[in-house]
Design goal:
By secondary structure, this protein is of the alpha/beta class. Strands 1-7-6-5-4-2-3 form a 7-stranded mixed β-sheet, with helices on both faces. A two-stranded antiparallel sheet has the order 8-9. It has 14 helices and 9 strands. Helix 2 runs antiparallel to helix 11.
């Protein structure tokens, strides 16, 4: 599926130099880390896809906020700015800063859950599940069936399975202490949740008197999916969609290290300012995080978070953020199509009908290959030559393989990247072909062999 590339709606004003390790160095580092990615040093990873949580670049507005941060222990201007911003965006009366999302869970969940209780969710993120169980309760996932089939395309695959939820509430209503809606559904591959689904879950929760908590780490992305894929919200601005999403819950926990674009920070929100939970939250926060007017964050962290909450819901930024993943996904595709053709009536005859039927299977596979060897393409002709060179090499290698076995792309790429003669001292001026890759070229022979008469 072809996906249009969406350009970045920002300028990059600063770069961080990287050192590319050799293959031997990379292998050595992996052995030293016992093949555990968490054991690798960040400086050894040129492309680090471990997580995007708190690892991204902040904006110029956020860095300016860092310099404005008010570090007063209580009553800091940065604290007030963060609280006002969050109240305006989410419509909740009480906002508690914490150092990250799992801290919000640690503070909140023991106030609602205990031994023998149940917590239901479209799917729990791993730390959320851990804090439910640390409180003594048990988790039950109720995600829709479509989420269990990642290769199938469907909208809002992060939704709660509402009939399943209703069944569990009928069976265990008195034991259910909390319903958690994870948006987007991280453990289901970041799939979004529809506004209609949020409404239906909220209605059931009110019927049974159970609080709903939004795990809001990807709230901005979820709002964008609602705007794009739910017809009634096509022309609704993202801030209004965010407000409505949060209106269908009573509480929220948030790791702000994703959609709020900060390196550290989180929030806990209570919609009703008269809730008895607020005093318990403040008390637990003082014990685990720090005084409730900073919750484990410095003034500069709160200032940057206040800026990021607004910048993270910019529609052009969200269009780019979602679009870049769709573009990448379009380069990594594997689809299989099965078809059956038959002659009407004759093809339906038992046993004999198979003589009048035919089956076909078509597989379309797209692979993304990244070669970190820059080649400057100055014209369409340059592009054609390099493409033909590399494509021809892959086809040639495929032809030398066992015809009964489909060669893996890893084998081809590994062999291709290893076909490197000594590097010349200087590139040939005007030559766009990478001199480090010696690619076999197939040519048709024009030699004529004459046979003489035997004596």
């Amino acid at each position: 599926m072809a996906i249009k590339y969406i350009p970045e709606p920002f300028r990059i004003k600063s770069v961080e130099p990287l050192r590319l390790l050799t293959r031997e160095e990379r292998e050595s580092r992996l052995i030293e880390a016992k093949y555990n990615l968490f054991g690798l040093k960040g400086e050894d990873c040129a492309i680090d896809l471990l997580t995007d949580s708190g690892t991204g670049a902040m904006s110029t507005g956020q860095w300016a906020g860092i310099m404005r941060g008010d570090e007063a222990y209580a009553g800091a201007a940065s604290y007030e700015k963060l609280i006002d911003t969050a109240r305006d965006l989410f419509g909740y009366d009480y906002i508690q800063p914490v150092h990250q999302g799992r801290a919000a869970e640690k503070v909140l969940f023991p106030l609602l859950l205990s031994a023998g209780k149940l917590a239901l969710s479209n799917m729990f993120f791993d730390t959320t599940r851990a804090h439910v169980e640390l409180a003594g309760a048990r988790c039950i996932d109720c995600v829709v069936e479509a989420a269990r089939h990642p290769a199938e395309r469907a909208r809002f695959k992060g939704n709660m399975d509402v009939p399943r939820l209703e069944q569990l509430l009928r069976e265990h209503g008195g034991r259910v202490g909390l319903i958690v809606m994870t948006i987007t559904n991280n453990s289901a591959g970041g799939q979004p949740v529809s506004m209609q689904n949020l409404r239906e879950v909220a209605a059931l929760a009110r019927q049974y008197g159970i609080p709903v908590c939004i795990d809001a780490a990807r709230y901005a992305e979820n709002a964008y999916f609602i705007q794009r894929d739910e017809a009634e919200y096509k022309d609704v601005p993202i801030p209004r969609i965010v407000r409505e999403m949060f209106s269908h819950a009573d509480l929220f926990t948030m790791s702000a290290k994703k959609d709020a674009i900060v390196n550290m920070g989180g929030l806990l929100g209570v919609r009703d300012g008269a809730s008895d939970l607020i005093q318990g939250i403040r008390t637990a926060c003082i014990s685990y995080e720090g005084f409730y007017t900073y919750g484990g964050l410095s003034g500069r962290d709160m200032e940057a978070l206040a800026v990021g909450l607004r910048e993270g819901i910019d529609e052009s930024y969200l269009r780019y953020r979602i679009g870049q993943m769709e573009y990448l996904g379009g380069l990594l595709d594997d689809n299989e199509r099965r078809t059956i053709e038959k002659i009407p009536l004759l093809g339906d005859i038992p046993a004999l009908g198979q003589l009048f039927r035919s089956k076909a299977k078509t597989r379309t596979k797209t692979n993304l290959m990244v070669f970190i060897r820059p080649t400057i393409l100055r014209s369409p002709e340059d592009n054609r030559r390099v493409t033909e060179q590399r494509y021809g090499y892959l086809r040639l290698q495929q032809g030398t393989q066992d015809p009964t076995r489909e060669p893996s792309i890893d084998e081809l790429v590994r062999d291709y990247m290893g076909a490197a003669p000594p590097i010349p001292s200087a590139p040939v001026p005007g030559n766009i072909e990478d001199p480090r890759v010696n690619v076999p070229v197939q040519r048709n022979s024009t030699v004529t062999i004459k046979r003489g008469k035997s004596r």
